[in-house]
Specification:
heterodimer; A: 256 residues; alpha/beta; Rossmann fold; 9-stranded mixed beta sheet; 7 helices; B: 333 residues; 2 domains; 5-stranded parallel beta sheet; 8 helices; 30% strand; elongated; binds flavin-adenine dinucleotide; binds adenosine monophosphate
């Protein structure tokens, strides 16, 4: 199977984020990492290749810094990478991102495209589903397990409140992957060395702009949410914090 | 082809019962209608929906459409889109609102793009500013919120986050709303996926819903070996140990101890959140707790927005001190 994995670079979970001066976006001088569900999508793709053969290609749309996530994917075992490089790919609405990615891979015949179920930064939860619409393919979301059966796939989806559902699906298809379906691998030293010689195709905004069209959504402003609850803050050295907490547990919460 | 001033709420039902967030979405629609002067209509869809349609018609709505077809008996994105695309193209509402459920996440983006319209997902509130409708949504895992507008002409599409509006504020109408039946024509061959029945995994051994005290760990615990420390605290407090999703994904604790939208929903007397950032999918599982103490090294962590007591600090230092203090208090008692 020939599989494309969409990987997004997002600010590190622990990175302290600040608004820029105009309050229109975050300050971009933070550390970045791979969007977590995308790491699981890559893992699943690599396992499919190990089982069924084929090729794993990774793609990201983002500025120069985003190349790092492609390097990591190549080191883990992806065969080649496509970088849609440019600052124009930041702050896009999900339909535009989907159209850009579709345009970048239109000459290739993938059997499967994986995305994460949701990005940690924008949280649209749309890009994969939209990619399926642009390509005219079926799709399924929040996938935990994939098995090739005959010409198609048998999938396990996560549903709400502890339910699951199996389904059958033909190829080609787009799947959005949930985290936790597999254990993630680490890149080996050997993998990191080999990655240096793997192909990395670069495309720019100009290559896909005509397919993307106008942004359908506009982020008018970004700001820190207003607190809804009155929160009491406790600080001091650990021993003192512990004493204050126990006092609250005993006298206010009455659980001790 | 200009849109009619109508807000259409696409509700979600299972076995004839609407879910709570469908009612929350009706509340949202009614509030937006009060400001824009638009009217509110609702859609119920499935193979047999007359009971659900009757139930929802009690709400203050201009009209209820029951869209039915045998092909809608079990949810598929292809079936839902085949039913809704021609319907929306004909009705041309100004705004189409959905509850932000797993099912809606699965088909609504595709439906909107099939009609060449943008969708704002997971809105927590809205603003109507000089004739322009904006939806507010969380970004960067709840660290920021954004006001987002649509470009181009309506219909506009948006999904509403669970818990953002109150179901009990959905107004009833003076008389039941008229119900119109729509027969969707769906070719069986157009449904490309074959879903099987929903199921639950083998019975869970721990029931956290009854626990009075829960000590819950997130990725801030850093290493698997530190789980032991949290377990000791839970033991000292006579409570249960729980976790956020990444801890269970990593296999540090079994999935049956996961709290959140894809785990358990709990409401203990005390929920002690250790190194949990407070993503919405976690909060929905625990915000019914009577008291919440959160320990996090980041003063801006969203978990503090819903905590009663905030401790800004390193949990690896605070937890051992707390274990000692709790033991002392118990010994005195
Ligand atoms: C469809 C869907 C379903 C989901 N279902 C669930 C679910 O059921 N349950 C769930 O929990 N999540 C769920 N998630 C994932 C959710 O979005 C978050 O990614 C997750 O809850 C984050 O877990 P966390 O807070 O432990 O980790 P992080 O977000 O990484 O937060 C770690 C926190 O620890 C703090 N920290 C770090 N070091 C220390 C220290 N030494 N001392 C104190 N604090 C420290 C950091 O400041 C940070 O705030 C779901 C996501 C999706 C898209
Ligand atoms: N700029 C991007 N580059 C590569 N993949 C992306 C990009 N944006 C979104 N994706 C993919 O789409 C998924 C869902 O993103 P979102 O719709 O923003 O929640 C992510 O998990 C990625 O797999």
């Amino acid at each position: 199977m020939k599989i494309l994995v969409c990987i997004k670079q997002v600010p590190q979970k622990d990175a302290p984020l600040k608004l820029n001066e105009s309050g229109s976006w975050i300050r971009e001088d933070v550390s970045y990492e791979v969007n977590e569900p995308d790491a699981y999508a890559l893992e699943e793709a690599l396992r499919q290749k190990e089982k069924n053969g084929g090729e794993v290609v990774v793609v990201t749309a983002g500025p120069a810094r985003a190349q790092q996530v492609l390097r990591e994917a190549l080191a883990k075992g992806a065969d080649r990478a496509i970088h849609l490089e440019g600052d124009e790919f930041v702050r896009l609405d999900p339909a535009s991102t989907a159209k850009a990615i579709a345009a970048a891979v239109k000459s290739e015949n993938f059997d499967l495209i994986f995305t994460g179920l949701q990005s940690d930064d924008y949280g649209y939860a749309q890009t994969g589903v939209l990619l399926a619409e642009v390509l005219g393919w079926p799709h399924s979301t929040i996938i935990l397990h994939i098995a090739k059966e005959g010409d198609g796939l048998k999938l396990k989806r996560e549903l709400e409140s502890g339910y699951f559902q199996d389904m059958e699906m033909p190829l080609p298809a787009v799947l959005t992957i949930q985290s936790g379906g597999n254990k993630l691998r680490y890149a080996t030293l050997m993998g990191i060395k080999q990655a240096k010689n793997k192909p990395m195709t670069k495309l720019g905004w100009a290559d896909v702009a005509s397919a993307v069209g106008k942004n359908g959504l506009k982020i008018e402003r970004l700001y820190i949410p207003v607190k809804q609850k009155r929160t009491e803050t406790i600080d001091g050295p650990p021993a003192e914090v512990a004493r204050k907490l126990v006092d609250k547990m005993r006298n206010e919460m009455r659980i001790l | 082809m200009s849109a009619r001033g109508v807000i259409l709420v696409i509700t979600e039902q299972r076995e004839g019962k609407l879910n709570r967030v469908s009612y929350e979405t009706i509340t949202a629609a009614q509030k937006i209608a009060a400001e824009t002067g638009w009217s509110v209509e609702a859609v119920v869809m499935g193979a047999q929906v007359s009971v659900a349609a009757g139930e929802i018609a009690a709400k203050k709505l201009e009209k209820v459409y029951q869209i039915h077809s045998p092909a809608l008996g079990q949810y598929t994105a292809d079936g839902y889109i085949a039913a809704l695309k021609p319907f929306l193209a004909e009705k041309l509402p100004s705004l189409v609102l959905f509850p932000h459920t797993y099912q809606v996440r699965d088909f609504a983006p595709k439906l909107a793009l099939a009609l060449d319209r943008p969708l704002i997902s997971d809105a927590v509130s809205y603003k109507y500013e000089s004739g322009k409708l904006l939806f507010t949504r969380q970004m960067f895992q709840g660290k920021f919120v954004a006001d987002v507008s649509f470009s181009g002409e309506p219909p506009y599409f948006a999904t509403v986050q669970a818990g953002s509006f109150r179901a009990d504020q959905a107004e009833n109408g003076p008389a039941p709303a008229p119900i119109e039946t729509v027969h969707a024509i769906i070719e069986n061959s157009s449904i490309r996926v074959k879903p099987h029945e929903m199921y639950k995994e083998a019975k869970q051994a721990v029931d956290l819903t009854q626990a009075e005290i829960i000590v819950s760990v997130g990725r801030g615990i850093k290493e698997q070996k530190n789980i032991e420390m949290a377990a000791k605290l839970a033991e000292a407090l006579g409570g249960e140990l729980a976790a956020s999703r990444p801890i269970c994904d990593a296999g540090w604790l079994p999935i049956e101890r996961q709290i959140g939208s894809s785990g358990q929903t709990v409401s203990p007397k005390l929920y002690l959140a250790l190194g949990i950032s407070g993503a919405i999918q976690h909060l929905v599982g625990m915000k019914g707790s009577r008291s919440v103490i959160a320990v996090n090294k980041d003063p801006e962590a969203p978990i503090f927005d819903i905590a009663d007591v905030a401790v800004v600090g390193n949990l690896l230092e605070i937890v051992p001190a707390l274990i000692e203090e709790v033991k002392k208090a118990k010994a005195e008692a």
